Amino acid sequence: MTQELQEAAIEFALLAGLCLLAAILCRGRVKWPWIAAAWGSFVVYHVASSQAYGYLPRPDFIDSPWNWEGYIWALLALAVMSLLVFARSPSEAGLSFRQSGPAPRAAAGVSVLLMAALFYAATRLPGGFEGDWDAIAFQISMPSIAEEWMYRGLLLAALDRAFGRPLRVLGPSLGWGAAIAAAMFGAAHLVGWSEAGIVWNWAHAGYTGGAGLLLVWIRAASGSLVWPVAIHGGGNAIFYIV
Q1: How many Cα atoms occupy the beta-carbon half-sphere of 117 within 13 Å?
Q2: CA-CA distances (angstroms) from residue 174 to 2, 171, 235?
Q3: What is the mean pLDDT of residues 46-65?
Q4: How far is CA 15 from the centre of its chain?
Q5: Phi first, then psi: what are they for 31, rounded to 5°?
Q6: Computed over its alpha carbons, how large is the radius of gyration of the chain?
Q7: How many angstroms separate the CA atoms of 224 and 56, rounded?
Q8: Are 95 and 82 within 8 A, CB to CB?
């Protein structure tokens, strides 16, 4: 079993466990087909972005150490899944440029403050720009678009359909989907590898999960993925440039 497949198995099991826990806490008042849609979308996204976990040959049609090809496949898979699941209501998955949520101004303000905080944090770290334009181009575009589309788009929307959104938080309504989507975003940064085997990056998973929860709120407050994508891509680039 490849390292990528082991990581995927951990994340798939975690998503299934969190959904089961939420279903128990909701006392069975859930829509199981939407849980299946969320889990299935997550699996397809993983298979596409990893190009079948290394079992399929990678074409490497872009001369780069970054996984451009995998994320291009992931974007295509996300587009297909969005058409299949949310063709009639793409805005439900955040697929809209309109800021039509319940608190768009608050979402914009929080987004600007978050970007300022990321910039400040980057200035406190050692290092600086080393001219790696390929890394910057990749970080601004591929992970930010694909991961936001997955975690704050399809996954969140499907889980909201499954569990509902009973809790109003400073404007937008949230539910178990918000907590699960944030936890899974943190889990995506949990597993690392060394010569000795798996390394558990709990601190990294913790702060990315916390950031993921804030991005969920921004997504729900604005009604769009525009701000989350901008924050994700801009934040990634800042740590390479500053």
Answers
A1: 9
A2: 36, 10, 24
A3: 79
A4: 13
A5: -105, 100
A6: 18
A7: 34
A8: yes
